[in-house]
Amino acid sequence: MEDMGIDKNRFFSGVYKDKRVLITGDTGFKGSWLALWLKELGAEVYGYALPPKSESENFSRCVLMKCIQHHDGDIRDTDSLFSYFHKVQPDITFHLAAQAIVLDSYDQPHYTFETNLMGVVNFFEAVRKTPSVKTAVNITSDKCYQNNEWLWGYREDDPMGGNDPYSASKGCSELITQSYHHSFFPEDSQCHIASARAGNVLGGGDWAPYRIVPDLFRAIKDGKDVIVRNPDAVRPWQHVLEPLSGYLLLGSMLWNHGERFSGGWNFGPVETNTCSVRELIENIIQVTGKGGYVVPPSEKAPSEARLLKLDISKANTLLKWRPTLNFRETVEFTANGYMDDLTENTNLYPFRLTQLEQFLNIACERKIPWANAK
Fold it and tell me: Which positions ≥6 away from 317 have C-beta within 8 Å?
């Protein structure tokens, strides 16, 4: 396929070109990928987050500190956050700063609730007190829904909930967003807000603990088999660029059309990308030709949902958004990204950019609307 580069005016109607875009949580997995994509769209990118936890993090491996304006800060620190918003005067904001690990929420429930609840309150307070902001998107999780282990996908108007602290915190984050929408950002507001829900996101640069794909590649690096404790758990897997395309499309529609696109939105894969942990691992091993896995005897562990899917009909119908990659492509993009991680290259930005360009080429070829939105 011929490389087309990144036309800053072609994607998302050119909304992000020359805009000041502030991302909270830019040092995280999704946040760092979003920062890279926005930079390539011609935005002035600003980040506010805790420093990367290690040099293996995507933010560090891509040397993003030299590419964007980043400020070390805790989302719980209201004075620091407000001061940075005042300094930057952003046009568009994305909130990704969070405690994002389910099992960590059992060990640190207070920190999880403080970060994921008061963090989003602080974010919307900063947005409310910064008149330059015209669009704000809160990124939550598919785990915001009260999970009844249904075979069908959850819709945006299904009840919020969550039995574990992390899931409960994300349900609360959605309720906070709804409250701010109705209380402070009405239809005639100069700023329009929304929330975006996605989960089971894969891709190079994610080295978080207690996640099966990072665990697999850690095992590959160490020449070991990965331990798979829940091989039959079913998830709707998607490459990181899929939900990011949804977030960016949602932000552009809020910018261009305002209140019509406020509220909550699901971004997930097609039904054929929903499969078990075992199937995912076996496909990655087949693509890379590396690794293996073992399933230990059952052991008692903190509760985690075994089946969780999203209904993306609303995004498909109203945003004209749909996933770009099929399951095999999702596996290949993910595996190739991690194999880049395992090299000795000191700057992975060019490698991530190559994957982004490949993704955009496929989206254009398949006539995905956001990729042809001049």
Answer: none
Q: What is the mean pLDDT of residues 237-263?
A: 97
Provide the terminal-to-terminal Cα distance of the chain, rounded to the nearest Å.
Answer: 21
User: In this structure, which amino acid lies at residue 182?
Assistant: H
What the block records as the tokens of 338 is 């991690």
List, as one string, the DSSP characters of 183-195.
Answer: HHS-TT-S-EEEE
Residue with tokens 């042809």: 372
Give the C-alpha separation, 238 to 269, whole Å: 6
Residue 140 placed within a domain: yes
Show the domain range for 278: 11-372
Count of other CB atoms within 10 angstroms of residue 102: 21
Residue 169 belongs to a domain: yes
Q: What is the CATH number of the domain that holds 93?
A: 3.40.50.720
Where does the pLDDT of residue 374 fall: very low under 50, low under 70, confident under 90, or very high at 90 and above? low
Please state the separation of Cα 280 from the chain's center in Å: 19
Distance CA 108, CA 110 (A): 6
Please check whether residue 20 is in contact with residue 88, taking contact to mean a CB–CB distance below 8 angstroms: yes
DSSP 275: E
> Is 4 part of a structural domain of the chain?
no
Strand partners, 197: 266
pLDDT above 70 (res 137)? yes
The total of structural domains in the chain comes to 1
Residue 27 is predicted with a pLDDT of: 98
Q: Say if residues 106 and 302 touch (Cβ distance below 8 Å).
A: yes
Give yes or no for a contact between 227 and 300, defined as CB atoms under 8 angstroms apart: no
CA-to-CA distance for 337 and 50, rounded, in angstroms?
24
Compute the C-alpha angle 64/47/178, nearest 5°: 140
Domain presence at residue 21 = yes
How many C-beta atoms lie closer than 10 Å to residue 277's C-beta? 21
pLDDT in tens, 16-51: 999 999 999 999 999 999 999 999 999 999 999 999
Over the stretch 169-186, which tens digit does the pLDDT of each residue have? 999 999 999 999 999 998
Whether the CA torsion 202, 205, 210, 216 is positive or negative: it is positive
Distance between CA atoms of residues 86 and 74, nearest Å: 16
Q: Which residue, among 234, 240, 226, has the nearest Cα to 96 in the 3D structure?
A: 240
